[in-house]
Amino acid sequence: MPPSFYGFVKDRGPVGAEEISTELLRLPELNGDARAHVEKLVEGDPRFRWDATGALRTVDAESLPLDEAPYVVFDVETTGSSAGKGGITEIGAVKVQGGLVVDRFSSLVNPERPIEPFVVRLTGITDRMVSGAPTSSEVMPLFEEFVEGAVVVGHNVHFDCSFVAAARGGEPLPNPILDTLKLSRTLVPGLKRYRLASLVSHFGIRTVPNHRALADAAATAEVFLKLLKLLKSAGVGSVGEAVGLKASRTRVKPQKGHLAEPLPRTPGVYYFVDKDETVLYVGKAKDLKARVRTYFNGGDGRRKIGRLVQEVAEVRYTETETELKALIFEDREIKRLLPRYNRAGRGQKASWFLELDGNEPYPLPKRVPRTEEAREGVVRLGPYRSAGVLDTCVEALGRIFPLRRCDGDAGGEACFYGQMGRCAPCMGMGRDEYREAVMEPLVALLRGEGGEEHLKALVAERGKLAAALEFEGAARLRDLIAGIQRIRLARSIVSAEGVQAVVAPSTEPGVVEVFVLSNGRLVAHGGFEPSDAEGLELFAAEALDGYDDEIVGPRKADEARVVASYLKRQGQPVEAVRLSAAGDLAATVLRVAELAEAAAGDSAGA
């Protein structure tokens, strides 16, 4: 196959722009503009440098600063056994530059040998799926070009590299290699396990590994970005320094571990206190002893943790019945004590609204800052904290509704989106029809007052993409669906008026949790069996009787956000109902229990 741009420059470099344009690009008549043309091709690519003579050369990736280097994070699925006896069945990779994923590579691979049964059960990849796929000899040249000049990254990466080397006739990749398993053991000491799933959980990453190559590569990439920050905090500046990192280099010496010994293994809130009895930090945990031990085993590599451990003289704690109660109590204690090391707990404000201007012929949902004043005829939803979630939500709404994509002045021809039936003016939709068919159901969807059929359609489309192995598109749809669901959940929990009961399945089998909120504060919380109508009736009556406007003020809205975040992490169906009649609450509890049971059945079937 012809040389790639990178391969041509590496083999001949330093090489002049004229030689590149005539011999590689086959553009012999650029009339002195060869340098400008080549500059456009390599602009922003850290793999290339112009030298003092005006020639182009490639850069050794190990010499690059961590922030500038290109990385390819990859994963392979195999037939089982060792690289010498087995083969690759799937390879997936993401290219990361400047902290962002800029490209992806994914392919099934025909290993030309049977896949072991336990591997089929683990990955879902069958002999039939790979029978028509390209062989490793066809895939490897494409993968080699994808990783050219980049730092190769993986979790337990030497296992994956051994299969790649076997597929390349025993020749290993020439790239610098970083292993997230090795880095995490060095930078995040004290964890019980360092499997990819454990690190995803530790760092709170949403992308979940599932033993498919591209999904696992994407999850590893997010873990790697977290580890990059820890490397920089530890004073590691270049790729070469990271490659040569030894386990003892950045590990904080374990100290003061005796302070964690009296703590119980229960949910609760812990307080780090200095010698002057000043509370330095307040945190929460599902397992108090295990969580606090991580600080004294070296923390997570952040300098702030090292300073905190040096100052702490005592650890106090308060046990709570559940993780959620620990979350709420932590929020209240941070506001009460304002500890010096809890900077993240102060001053967090919901700064964004989602707005539709009804004064326009075809209102479009857009994100606006809280500082912008509301106007007559404008529908405004919020406030919300995350600008990214709102932007994702707006993008998803464009997949659901035929929002205006152009001015409708293309000489009678439909625009690109209009040809797909997704642009109202191009579809001939009038202003009144737009308001009825688009604006009103859109607002109802975001307020949680209807529109579930639209979300179900997106979920079905996501399932089709996943079944067709179009994992990138399926993952994008998953994120768009999650964006809308988070906005609906925030609306139901944080912004709703009156006393609301939010119902969700518990982590305990056969139990449904009920959260009673008003003006952003959690006023009651309990767990019930779905059939316990009498208990629900008593709970509702006590919650309403105990409600006090003076106690439940708008300053407590963060508690509702804590509940919303907790429920979002559970990934279970959630419904909200105005707490006025016990019968309404009982019906909602039964419905959520049925939805949870159906979802569990779907997961088992998958």
Quick gist of this model?
The protein is an alpha+beta fold.
In DSSP terms (H or I, runs of 4 or more residues), the helix count works out at 22
Mean pLDDT: 80
Proportion of β residues? 15-25%
Q: Quick one: biggest sheet?
A: 5 strands, mixed
Weakly predicted, low-confidence segments: 247-252, 344-348, 549-555, 601-606
Radius of gyration (Å): 28 Å
Helix content: 40-55%
Number of strands: 17
Distance from first to last alpha carbon: 41 Å
> Taking strands numbered 1, 2, ... along the chain, how are they ordered across the largest sheet?
5-4-3-6-7
Structure classification: alpha+beta
Please state the overall shape, judged from the principal axes of the Cα atoms: globular
Provide a descriptive summary of the structure in words.
By secondary structure, the chain is an alpha+beta fold. The protein is 43% helix and 17% strand. The chain has 22 helices and 17 strands. The protein has helices at 5-12, 17-24, 34-42, 117-123, 127-130, 136-147, 157-167, 180-187, 196-203, 213-233, 239-243, 288-296, 303-311, 323-337, 387-400, 416-419, 431-447, 452-467, 471-495, 533-545, 557-570, 582-605, and strands spanning 48-50, 56-58, 71-78, 88-97, 100-108, 151-154, 177-179, 268-273, 279-285, 314-319, 352-357, 366-369, 378-384, 499-505, 512-518, 521-528, 575-578. The strands form five sheets. A five-stranded mixed β-sheet has the order 5-4-3-6-7, sandwiched between helices. A four-stranded antiparallel β-sheet has the order 16-15-14-17, with helices on both faces. A three-stranded antiparallel β-sheet has the order 9-8-10. Helix 8 (180-187) runs parallel beside helix 10 (213-233), helix 14 (323-337) runs antiparallel to helix 21 (557-570) and helix 18 (452-467) runs antiparallel to helix 19 (471-495). Mean pLDDT is 80; it is low at 247-252, 344-348, 549-555 and 601-606.
